[in-house]
Amino acid sequence: MRGPPHAAAVLLVAAAALCLGGRAEELEASSPEFNYPAVFNFGDSNSDTGGRVAAGFESISPPYGSTFFGSPSGRFCDGRLIIDFLMDAMDMPFLNAYLDSVGAPNLRAGVNFAQAGCSITPATATSVSPFSFGLQIKQFFAFKDKVTKLLSKGDTYRRYIPQSDYFSQGLYTFDIGQNDLAGEFYWKTEDQVAASIPTILLEFETGLKKLYEQGARKFWIHNTGPLGCLPQNVAFFGKDRSQLDELRCVAKHNRVAKLFNLQLHALCTKLRGEFAGASITYVDIYTIKYSLIANYSRYGFENPIQACCGYGGPPLNYDSRVPCGQTASLNGNLVTAKGCKDSTEFVNWDGIHYTEAANFHIASQILTGRYSDPPFADKMPFLIKPKF
Questions:
Q1: Residue 19: what pLDDT?
Q2: What is the CATH number of the domain that holds 146?
Q3: What is the overall mean pLDDT for the chain?
Q4: pTM of whole model > 0.70?
Q5: Most buried of the four, 28, 329, 367, 368, by CB within 10 Å?
Q6: Which positions are catalytic?
Q7: Which domain holds residue 197?
Q8: What CA–CA distance (Å, rounded) separates 121 from 128?
């Protein structure tokens, strides 16, 4: 299967039209003309389609990519990411990573600047990735400048790069901030991490304003998920059972994530009043993911927190010393973190990232519009149907 059914394309187009202010009575007439010529994505590993691998920081081994691509695709997943499903729903090709020059990538429909491990705030010497949000913004401007120069030279490259008006008409998507919070818990208290949120969001606001000043008008912003429910965090911070909530997630991580999201939502509301002629859609990823973990069996999953690909067995199947797909020596014995037999039974893939099946569920919930501000759930109440 290439992706979600074609009805999903109609759904996302109609939903986006509503987000941009289309009235219900005008929907039928406006939907066919509504179109994003390109998508420009900024983020971390939740939406990285190959940037970190292309940068040479690390390679990804099987079973990554095994569910859909048949081999590692640069994604930290067994298959497709949320951004892949959203692109598919808009009947657009998957986004190529900005740094990936292998395979003659076609960038006409947009480009992905996301990098695994990146943060909103500037990178430091100890950061997992140097490609912070600010640097991704700089890469976008470098890309836009190069495209402008190539377009001025004639039609030679037009079929491979965005047209000049795509930058003002395109959709700008964001899924970033998880690393700014989760990484800080290793050496800061909950109150200290919470106190850093305004600084993080000020950096995010600065980046959004730079994009707006350069013509961006359509913004699609994901909040951060329930960090305390990731096996990696449960394994390290959940040894004291009193630190876990009713779902066996680390409570303090989720409290800070919700506080971050509350302030991010407020920022989106504020910018709607400042960005004349722009649309800003805030998507509540946290609620979708937490509901999935809380009601996993209702959605056809069997393991809400245990990693599909890992080492150690239940309840987490996660050991930081043996990453997914790798072999390490533990107590003199070689052990390998292998994938599970059926990833569709698992919400979590490798202790940090979600499975393709979970990403599909999340994308289908996004497309209902119930979790977005502005909302459009009452206009488009149906779901796309999973096919694996």
A1: 38
A2: 3.40.50
A3: 88
A4: yes
A5: 367
A6: 45, 350, 353
A7: 39-294+351-373
A8: 12
